[in-house]
Design goal:
alpha/beta, 328 residues, seven-stranded mixed β-sheet, binds zinc ion, 2 domains
């Protein structure tokens, strides 16, 4: 196996590329602060062999003693939290946020998602296959008492780095960035990515993740950031420009959903997704892989929820299904 790519970004601060073969994200960035007292690893990659081998290589190349290594997980998705439980030692602290920990530890989250998926028009026979093949379902989360839960504003210190926890819900309900005010570094997780757009998705009804995401982007916009260290792809400098692009992207998506409902409504979230434009190499919606249909519908739904919150559209029961149309 080729040696894992590790670069020193700042003194004693490294970025390691943990490969995700076959996944369009390509790799997860793991950031490591190496210090005599204790090391910190920020995000890890998935629970799969390519990631595991790369992470072992990181521990070896940087000579990290597991007993002196702690972890910070930006959010609950398996490409970030996946490997943590395999690399923790008995003395390791795992920093994590409460909203995501509650979801990971929810007894029947997949049952709830399954029920909502069908209600939103995802064809019944696809539902079971979709949930059955969802990579998240196969990850057994750690027990809640194993996490050290952080709150917004908490500060953790490793080496010469003082890291402020900045809660940025949207991509996940408890997504948390780390901000280092001295050098103005932002470990952005999947809140702000450069070459790709973080997906904002929901299946559950009680929230407005896209609204949360806009608020979290606005909050980070007010901060002074010199270097963004994202969860995927390259590190970059112009944080505010990227925030504006991401907001513009979602405003265009909201317009697109409004146009679809104006033309075709009332329709289900699944039907909205099938009419939206996606950057995927496929002939058309019917040729999309099942998991892509699933993610697309979740993303359509996040936009639908936001428009509902803004009072621009409303829902209607159609038998067992939910459909959406423009508000009068
Ligand atoms: Zn990710």
């Amino acid at each position: 196996m080729a040696a894992t790519i590790i670069e020193e970004i700042k003194p004693a601060l490294y970025r390691a590329e943990i490969p995700l073969p076959g996944n369009p994200l390509k790799a997860t960035n793991s950031y490591i602060i190496k210090d005599e007292k204790r090391n910190l690893v920020i995000d890890t990659g998935m629970k799969r062999s390519a990631c595991r081998e790369a992470m072992r290589d990181v521990f070896e190349q940087l000579a990290l003693d597991p007993e002196k290594t702690d972890f910070f997980v930006t959010h609950m998705h398996i490409d970030h939290i996946g490997l943590v439980d395999e690399f923790v030692a008995s003395s390791s602290v795992v920093y994590f946020n409460r909203p995501d920990a509650e979801i990971l530890n929810h007894k029947n989250i997949w049952g709830m998602i399954l029920a909502m998926t069908e209600r939103h028009g995802f064809p019944a026979e696809m539902v079971k296959m979709a949930v059955g093949s969802h990579p998240g379902k196969h990850y057994e989360p750690k027990k809640p008492e194993d996490f050290t839960l952080v709150e917004d504003g908490d500060i953790i210190r490793y080496g010469c780095y003082e890291l402020h926890c900045i809660m940025t819900p949207g991509h996940s309900p408890g997504h948390t960035c780390l901000y280092e005010p001295e050098q103005k570094l932002l470990f952005s997780g999947d809140h702000i990515l450069c070459d790709i757009t973080p997906n904002i998705t929901t299946w559950l009804d009680e929230s407005d993740p896209l609204g949360d995401y806009f608020r979290s982007l606005d909050r980070v916009w007010t901060m002074s950031v010199k270097l963004v260290l994202p969860g995927h792809r390259r590190i970059f400098t112009d944080c505010r420009k990227r925030i504006e692009e991401l907001k513009e992207h979602h405003h265009q998506r909201l317009e697109e959903v409004m146009a679809i409902l104006r033309e075709a409504g009332p329709v289900s979230a699944f039907d909205v997704a099938s009419r939206m434009t996606w950057d995927l190499v496929a002939e058309g919606w019917d040729d999309f892989p099942l998991m892509q249909k699933w993610f697309a519908t979740g993303e359509a739904l996040a936009h639908i929820r936001h428009l509902e919150y803004e009072g621009k559209i409303r829902r209607e029961e159609q038998g067992k299904k939910l459909v959406f149309k423009l508000a009068d």
